UniProtKB/TrEMBL annotation:
It comes from Salmo salar. This is ribose-phosphate diphosphokinase. Its EC number is 2.7.6.1. Residues 7-125 form the Ribose-phosphate pyrophosphokinase N-terminal domain. The lineage of its organism: Eukaryota, Metazoa, Chordata, Craniata, Vertebrata. Keywords: ATP-binding, Kinase, Magnesium, Metal-binding, Nucleotide biosynthesis, Nucleotide-binding, Transferase.
Length: 323
């Protein structure tokens, strides 16, 4: 890859490994940045090199200590902006607060925190956002700056074809109605059937009753979703699929958050494998759960950065994995 002039890539502390992989892929060094905390837990960021007139990309995922990492990102954007960077792009593989994207109940007093995060990013000085598999693609409309919402789908299709021998006889399953669009798109491109599970919730993070719509008997079932947090839904769904006659159950998730009892639940569930991307670091999770496998998406983000920097179209990445 030819040397790219006036581009700088910085990594926040949420996922340094991914930042390094992106920089390596682009043949660049990560920019020098020191992030530290004062004893009162205030975040302090020092950008260790000149960014004047540069095209700056800051990689920070919404995971781990979410609020600290979000604050660190805002401060890094602002630090680059007031140090005269010509353009600052926030590369946020997993967008924080994306689930708080609407008011659920009529007249509820629920906040729309995803919009608040969008405002904070804009006010801090971001000129452009690159993210992946937003929980709801309408979140792009919360911004008045360009947002590139990349898809893990091409990488997922590639993984299915390379790792599931009987993929031609599988059913792609959405664990809830919200993911129907994502699942039908994958099923169409593999030319296989899809099914969905309708769930009724009484309160957040707890599932009540599940109804399977579609046929999985004597087939491999592949659950696909954008994120798994406590994993209650997908583990329930896996049980439902096995009782409906599925021969094997895989789960493929873009963002493996795996908080609370998630790992215990996965270990006890009947998955062949739970496949996640590395939008969130998974090293620790993999130590505690042998079923977790990781698809590396650093090349998708790196290619998006390269194309954005060179003023090329990014839409190629919606249907292809860069080689």
């Amino acid at each position: 890859m030819s040397k790219m002039p006036n581009i700088k890539i910085f990594s926040g502390s949420s996922h340094p490994d991914l930042g390094q992989k992106i920089a390596d892929r682009l043949g660049l060094e990560l920019g020098k940045v020191v992030t530290k905390k004062f004893s009162n837990q205030e975040t302090c960021v020092e950008i260790g090199e000149s960014v004047r007139g540069e095209d700056v990309y800051i990689v920070q995922s919404g995971c781990g200590e979410i609020n600290d990492n979000l604050m660190e990102l805002l401060i890094m954007i602002n630090a680059c902006k007031i140090a005269s960077a010509s353009r600052v792009t926030a590369v946020i593989p997993c967008f924080p607060y994306a689930r708080q994207d609407k008011k659920d109940k009529v007249g509820s007093r629920a906040p729309i925190s995803a919009k608040l995060v969008a405002n904070m990013l804009s006010v801090s000085g971001a000129n452009h956002i690159i993210t992946m598999d937003l929980h709801a693609s309408q979140i792009q409309g919360f911004f008045d700056i360009p947002v590139d919402n990349l898809y893990a789908e091409p990488a997922v299709l590639k993984w299915i074809k390379e790792n599931i021998n009987e993929w031609k006889n599988c059913t792609i399953v959405s664990p809830d109605a919200g993911g129907a669009k994502r699942v039908t798109s994958i099923a169409d491109r593999l030319n296989v059937d899809f099914a969905l599970i309708h769930k009724e919730r009484k309160k957040a993070n707890e599932v009540d009753r599940m109804v399977l719509v579609g046929d999985v008997k004597d087939r491999v079932a592949i659950l696909v979703d954008d994120m798994a947090d406590t994993c209650g839904t997908i583990c329930h769904a896996a049980d439902k699929l096995v009782s409906a006659g599925a021969t094997k159950v895989f789960a493929i998730l873009t963002h493996g958050i795996f908080s609370g009892p998630a790992i215990t639940r996965i270990n006890n569930a009947c998955f062949e494998a739970v496949v996640v991307t590395n939008t969130i670091p998974q090293e620790d999770m993999m130590k505690h759960c042998s079923k977790i496998q990781v698809i590396d998406i650093s090349m998708i983000l790196a290619e998006a950065i390269r194309r954005t920097h060179n003023g090329e179209s990014v839409s190629y990445l919606f249907s292809h994995v860069p080689l």
